[in-house]
From TrEMBL:
Keyword DNA-binding belongs to the record: no
Any single biological process term in GO: fatty acid elongation
InterPro entries in the record: NAD(P)-bd_dom_sf (IPR036291), SDR_fam (IPR002347)
Protein name in UniProt: SDR family NAD(P)-dependent oxidoreductase
Keywords for the protein's UniProt record, in alphabetical order: NADP, Oxidoreductase
A GO molecular function held by the record: oxidoreductase activity
Length: 261
């Protein structure tokens, strides 16, 4: 991928132990990047590192951290001071499904801490560090649900609206300054996400291949809808008024969360 040549061949990936983050690890290793991988589950990270080492001749280091805890985010920042990353992929994130008031408030706050707070803290650090010095590709994760409010996953959808808006703002601020910000906004993806969120992923795409499509858009656009399903659902919804989109997604989410519309 020629557009990746301008970035130092070293990448930080959060949420790299499975799903989309893991796909980024494999694609970036294929492109010759050394990897600094973060997630909570040490065992899963070790498996990913072993798989990567079997296939690619790149250095892979793994780090177990709970990024919903801002102290852990600060320690990640501290521990990576000696590293210089060309690409930073902030894929760690999770959601919840159900009636807002019936979900534990700690889970909802944890979504905000991980999906929003840690993203602001890490983006701020890595942009400030690269400014005027080196090219940086910063990849954040929006979602199809982030373009309107979505009943039965209200907090998660709002967190992704935050990331989408944040990424668009940063993209505009940093254009032409060697710092490329991209929001990856998939539709439903068949990863570990559904299990943790309590959502049944019916029609969904594989996480495999999302990284390749997304990386090819880095430095070219603010948002990528990776793959046919993301594009088909995203663009067909985008022609409708916001309240109608919410209504349609309410029905879809009800079937994913409660098994009925
Ligand atoms: N799947 C979808 O349908 C979908 C659609 C649109 C957008 N997205 C977004 O895409 C991103 C990746 O999702 P995915 O589908 O790949 O989900 P996934 O398969 O569940 O992977 C999530 C990753 O984040 C890590 N993680 C979760 N909580 C963490 C924490 N507190 N601290 C550090 N790492 C944590 C997980 O590892 P550990 O459990 O080991 O920590 C895992 O590596 C997320 O931001 C998600 O919101 C997903």
């Amino acid at each position: 991928m020629k557009n990746l040549n301008k970035y130092r061949k070293s990448a930080l990936i959060t949420g790299a132990s499975e799903g989309i983050g893991k796909d980024f690890a494999f694609e970036l290793a294929k492109q010759g990047f050394s990897l600094y991988l973060v997630a909570r589950n040490q065992g899963k990270l070790e498996e990913v590192r072993n798989e990567l080492r079997e296939k690619f001749d790149v250095s892979v280091s793994i780090h177990s951290k709970d990024l919903s805890d801002s102290k852990s985010v600060s320690s990640l920042i501290e521990e990576t001071k000696e590293f210089s990353f060309g690409i930073v992929v902030l894929a760690a994130g999770f959601g919840s499904g159900g009636e807002f008031a019936s979900l534990p408030v700690d889970t909802e706050l944890n979504i905000v801490d991980l999906n929003c707070r840690s993203i602001v803290q890490l983006s701020h650090h890595f942009i400030k560090r690269s400014e005027g010095k080196e090219s940086l590709g910063l990849i954040l994760f929006g979602s199809l649900v982030g373009f309107q409010g979505v009943p039965w996953t209200a907090t998660y959808a709002a967190s992704k609206a935050f990331v989408q808006s944040f990424a668009e703002g940063l993209y505009g601020e940093n254009r032409g300054k060697g710092i490329d910000v991209l929001s990856v906004a998939p539709g439903p993806v068949n990863s570990g996400f559904g299990g943790r969120a309590g959502m049944k992923m019916g029609m969904s795409q594989s996480p495999n291949g999302i990284a390749k499509i997304s990386l090819s858009e880095l430095g070219k656009s603010a948002t990528v809808r990776p793959g046919f399903l993301s594009k088909f659902l995203g663009y067909s919804l985008s022609t409708l008024p916001r309240n109608l989109r919410s209504l349609i997604l309410k029905k879809i989410m009800a079937s994913m969360v409660f098994g009925k519309t």
